[in-house]
Amino acid sequence: MASKARVAFDANCKDVDRLLEIHGTLGGDKQGRRFQLEVLNKSAIVLVSAIWEAYCEDIVAEAVEHLIAVSQNAAVLPTSIKKIVAKELKEDKNELAIWEVADNGWKNVLQSRLKRMQESRARKLNTPKSEQIRNLFHDVLGIDDITEVWYWPKMSSTQAAAKLDAFISMRGEIAHRGAVERAVSKQTVVDFLNHVQRLVRKTGKSVNRSVKDATGESLFEGDSSDTSETSED
Predict the structure, then answer these.
(1) DSSP state of 135
(2) What is the DSSP letter of 153?
(3) How far apart are CA 224 and CA 222, in angstroms?
(4) Count of Cβ atoms closer than 10 Å to residue 112 Cβ
């Protein structure tokens, strides 16, 4: 069974598939540029970016909820998370803030941190580039660098991050200016979607491993098929 975040992501991908189907219906499958259909491709690029960002935020929130639900005490939390929270509490001007983690108070602290970060990201309108995603997973789950697991044959983690960033930059140009320097083809959409789907599998597997290492209980149970978050590319 996949994570809730993955289920939502797969459902959202069907909307992208639908845009591609409409493109094929109106323009056919022959090679060549369809000038009047490029708007569908641009819309799909924006949509893929949105569902990638949504997945990252959803899997982080789901992991935090899992940590809170299955952990008997704060001792089992990843050391990196405890260090981050400790640092924040030390910097808090409220001298009694440290007592917020007493007993089961640490659960409320984790929930409050997640909510604050979600609100902050919404206000800042951050784009889901590799740096922002890296910071999100580090600050909330204590994962040092989630992008390190983004690799597969003929694609290093550095290349995967750079490729993601290029697509997200394209999304920014479309969203803010309505145009990009080069044409947005149907194949560009397919490449972006395929890339994000790989990143989702790698990211989900890493989060699941991190949570299981901390609590002994997996966030989700998957099979070995290509559609599972536990699969290797």
Answers:
(1) H
(2) T
(3) 7
(4) 11
Q: In the chain, at which residue ranges do the beta strands (DSSP E only) sit?
A: none
Place of tokens 């405890």: 82
The model scores a pTM over 0.85: no
If you search the block for the tokens 């044409």, which residue do you land on? 183
- For the stretch 43-69, pLDDT in tens is 999 999 999 999 999 999 899 888 888
> Which tens digit of pLDDT belongs to each residue from 122-146?
555 468 999 999 988 988 888 999 9
For the record, the structure tokens of 136 come out as: 């999100």
Domain boundaries, the chain: 4-215
Nearest by Cα to 146 from 109, 201, 189: 201
Residue type, 43: S
Q: Residue 196: which of 41, 44, 62 has the closest Cα?
A: 44
In angstroms, how far is the first alpha carbon of the chain from the final one?
Answer: 18
Residue 125 gets which letter from DSSP? T
